[in-house]
């Protein structure tokens, strides 16, 4: 199912290195499907953490909301496990499903969602998932490389979201009442700054889970 193709040490630049592990096409499609399902269901699942395990006897198990859902985690986990093609296919399918067929986005779906301020972040899932998957298979599997891949994917998602917010505010007249220029900094704060710490916590979980799964699957 998985073809390992480990390269010798060379002086070639990082960008020219072939992947250390090359997934088969059926595996890529399998992870694309898994990623699509995970992204849909995680959209409506709030992320939380608990207090430290060694305090459970004295304080009990307490949960604390991260203020975000597990959606970002599903996108990046797909890239870390399935590679760039799985990340690209799963998120392209997710966006198209939400625009044309099923209300899989947090506030529904349909073509009208193109005018939602948050849609740029959803659109960013496509390049973000691709980049995460691309980087995750360019170095030997370890916690640091997987975390770096996920962080790069998250940054791309936010960049796409920010560009979309600015574009809506500047160039789409019907959205000016929702995002006037004067409130653009507040929109950026709400959509990027506030959720970012919680998303970083999710990235830590994604990197650890990906490492465990890739060790179990021998790649």
From TrEMBL:
Main location: membrane
TM stretches of this protein: 29-49, 61-81, 93-113, 119-137, 146-172, 192-213
Span of the signal peptide: none
Keyword DNA damage: no
Subcellular location: Cell membrane
Entry-linked InterPro entries: BioY
GO molecular function, one term: biotin transmembrane transporter activity
UniProt keyword list: Cell membrane, Membrane, Transmembrane, Transmembrane helix, Transport
Gene3D superfamilies (alphabetical): 1.10.1760.20
Its membrane topology: Multi-pass membrane protein
A single cellular component GO annotation: plasma membrane
Family under the similarity heading: Belongs to the BioY family.
Protein's UniProt name: Biotin transporter
Lineage: Bacteria, Bacillati, Cyanobacteriota, Cyanophyceae, Oscillatoriophycideae
């Amino acid at each position: 199912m998985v073809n390992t193709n480990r390269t010798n040490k060379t002086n070639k630049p990082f960008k020219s290195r072939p992947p250390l592990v090359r997934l088969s096409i059926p595996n890529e499609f399998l992870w694309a499907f898994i990623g699509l399902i995970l992204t849909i269901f995680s959209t409506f699942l709030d992320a939380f953490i608990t207090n430290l395990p060694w305090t459970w006897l004295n304080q009990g198990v307490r949960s604390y909301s991260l203020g975000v859902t597990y959606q970002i985690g599903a996108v990046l986990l797909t890239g870390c496990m399935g590679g760039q093609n799985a990340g690209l296919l799963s998120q392209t399918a997710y966006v198209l499903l939400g625009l044309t067929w099923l209300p899989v986005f947090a506030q529904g779906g349909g073509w009208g969602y193109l005018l939602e301020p948050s849609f740029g972040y959803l659109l960013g899932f496509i390049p973000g998932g691709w980049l995460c998957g691309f980087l995750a298979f360019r170095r030997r599997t370890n916690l640091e490389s997987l975390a770096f891949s996920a962080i790069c994917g998250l940054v791309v998602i936010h960049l796409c979201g920010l560009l979309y917010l600015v574009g809506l505010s500047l160039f789409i007249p019907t959205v000016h009442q929702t995002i006037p220029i004067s409130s653009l900094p507040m929109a950026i704060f709400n959509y990027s700054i506030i959720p970012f710490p919680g998303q970083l916590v999710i990235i830590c979980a994604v990197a650890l889970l990906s490492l465990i799964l890739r060790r179990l699957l021998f790649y």
